[in-house]
Amino acid sequence: MKKILAFSLLLALPFMGVAQRHELNKALLLKDVQVLSADSMQGRQSGSAGNKLAQEYILQRFRQVGLKPFGEDYRQFFRIGGKRLVVERAVNLVGYIPGKSEKAIVVTAHYDHVGQRDGHIYNGADDNASGVGALLAAAGYFAQHKPKHTLIFAALDGEELGLQGASAFLGNPPVPLQNILLNVNLDMLSINDKGELYASGAYHNPQLKPYLEQVKPLPQAKLVLGHDLPDQGHDDWTSQSDHYPFYKRGIPFVYFGVEDHPHYHKPTDDYVQVNKAFYPDAAALVLDFIRIIDANADKLRDRK
Questions:
Q1: Phi, psi at residue 2, to the nearest 5°?
Q2: Which residue among 104, 238, 258, 283 has the highest number of C-beta atoms inside a 10 angstrom radius?
Q3: Can you give the CATH number for the domain in which 240 is found?
Q4: Average pLDDT over the chain, rounded to whole?
Q5: Which pLDDT tens digit goes with each residue over 167-217?
Q6: Residue 128 sits in which domain range?
Q7: Shortest CA distance to 220 belongs to which of 285, 277, 286, 272?
Q8: What are 38-90's pLDDT values in tens digits?
Q9: Coil, strand or helix at 150
């Protein structure tokens, strides 16, 4: 039944944009996560049939939203080589909304997960169907509210295999690297019972802090700055997701995510665990930050 549900949603999903300014379409946001974390996606491991099915769904959503491809194809192919897994044809999915400026903000969220192990499907609803859902919601908003800066939306492959998709994106960027003002990375946004969404990166990029502080709390979610101090050990998230290759290239970043929870990298990370009250507000906080920073991004490299 789950396979039937996933395919029916994939084939028959209607286009729905953002209802009003600052408001996301909650039903569509949750539907995106539900589809991407269905059993039919087989845990979305890079190179798998389930990963390819996730690609097809995201590509359909890119077209529905109205994202433009660079060239004729949204797909960026690259090779993943490593001890754990070799994938000859991994795929990043990249689209954009042109702004008045050629300077760009890159919004990233990885769509791969860890696949199947010992007979269990690791569906990765929070990690990271939730980030992809928020990325698609933000793309839908800015397709209707044209940005000041060019916004690039990249659904990345190979994060679970060593941030490979982000490295491939930067190795063959669709715009010159000097034109990238900021990376906004979304990874695990949907499971938190305290109503806390963390924004990591202000320690390394203090020029971003005033804009993060402009993001107002919502009834079910508030923004908390942190998890970016070098002396925090594992609690320093600087190197723990796709923003890290941007950071190594000297590109400012903000990483939005929740703290670890019992379902992290477990087969219980299913859609049923998603906090249906918190997650839409968390995605709206991300959207609000992108809106604020888009209006001010040209100042980023001027501030100390």
A1: -65, -40
A2: 283
A3: 3.40.630.10
A4: 92
A5: 999 999 999 999 999 999 999 999 999 999 999 999 999 999 999 999 999
A6: 2-302
A7: 277
A8: 999 999 999 999 999 999 999 999 999 999 999 999 999 999 987 778 999 99
A9: strand
Distance CA 258, CA 115 (A): 22
* Residue keyed to tokens 């109205």: 66
- Which residue bears the tokens 């320093």? 236
For 287, the token pair is 């959207």
Residues 6 or more apart in contact with residue 81 via CB below 8 angstroms: none
Q: Report which DSSP code applies to 87.
A: E
> What are the backbone dihedrals phi and psi of residue 73, each rounded to the nearest 5 degrees, phi first?
-145, 140
Output the pTM of the full model: 0.92
Q: Which residues pair with 154 in a beta bridge?
A: 94, 108
Structure tokens at 16: 């729905």
Q: Which two tokens stand for residue 282?
A: 């968390």
SS3 at position 78: strand
Calpha distance 67→95 (Å, rounded): 5
Concatenated DSSP letters for 30-77?
HHHHHHHTSGGGGGG-TTSHHHHHHHHHHHHHHHHHTPEESTT-SEEE
Say which DSSP state 304 is in. Answer: -
Strand partners, 197: 223
Cβ 108 vs Cβ 156: under 8 Å: yes
Side chain identity, residue 99:
G
- The encoded tokens of residue 258 equal 């929740």
3-state secondary structure of 21: coil
Rounded (5°) CA angle 220-110-190: 15
Q: How far apart, in whole angstroms, are the C-alpha atoms of residue 226 and residue 243?
A: 15
Nearest alpha-carbon partner for 162 in 87, 93, 233: 87
CA neighbor of 159 nearest in space, from 202, 193, 114: 114
Give the chain's domain count: 1
- Write down the pLDDT at residue 247: 98
